[in-house]
Amino acid sequence: MSAPRFFVDGPMTPGEEVGLEAGDSRHAAVVLRVQPGAAIVVIGNGVAWSAEVVSVSARVVSARVIAKSESQGSELPAAVSLLQAVPKGNKMEFVVEKAVELGARCIVPVECARSYGGVSAHKLERWRKIARSAAQQSHRLIVPEVEAPLAWSAALQRFAETPLLVAHEAAERDTLARAARATFQHVALAVGPEGSFTDEEIAQARAAGAHMVSLGPTILRTETAGLALLSAVAALQHWW
Predict the structure, then answer these.
(1) What angle do CA 130, 2, 16 make, to 5 degrees?
(2) What is the pLDDT of residue 10?
C-alpha cells in the first residue's frame, strides 16, 4: 500500500518540519489514524517528498521532510481546462472528482441558457475540496483549480486565445479526431447542459473559433460527456 499523499504550501527541504492543512490533518488523524513514525508523502510546488510523521492531533499533523519521493506522480503534458455546464443536483461533484483523476488542470462551471444547476459559495467550496482530495488520491502534483462560475459568453471570452473543442450532438463524424490532430500546449473542452446548447450559444462558439466535435452516435449525459471528451483527447494526443 502506498503512503498517503498531502499537499502543503511552498517549497521544502530535507529536515524541514511541515504541518498539514486543517482538513488533511483531520483526515490523517481520524480516518487514516496515522501515528508518529508513519510514512507519508507531502507535495509542494509540484514536487513530492517522502516524510515521516512527528506529531499527531485532530488539528495539526506535522511531518519531517526526508528526501524527494521516488513516486513523484505526473501531469498531462498539456494544460486541459474543462468548461462544464453545471448539471442539476450533486452531479458536478462527480464531474470534478473524475476530471481531476483524468488530468484536467482547470474546471470552469459554466451557466448556459438551459442550465438546471446553480452555483453557490458553499457548492464552489465543496467542489474545491473534492478537487484537492481527488488530486491527492490520483497522485497529481498540483491541485487543479475550480474557478468561479462564468456565463457561456464570458467563458468563450476567457478562453479566446485557447483552442476550444465543444462537444455537440450535431457535429459530424470524425470531427474530434480531426480537431485533435493539432499539438496542444493548452486546450479547453466544453460540454453543454442537460438540454444542450442553444442555437445561439453554438453560433457564439463558432464565431469565437471553437471546433464542434462529435462524441459518437449516442447522446451522452452532460456529466458523462466532459469526461469522455477529456479521455478521448488524451488518447488521441498520446498523452497516456
Answers:
(1) 80
(2) 84
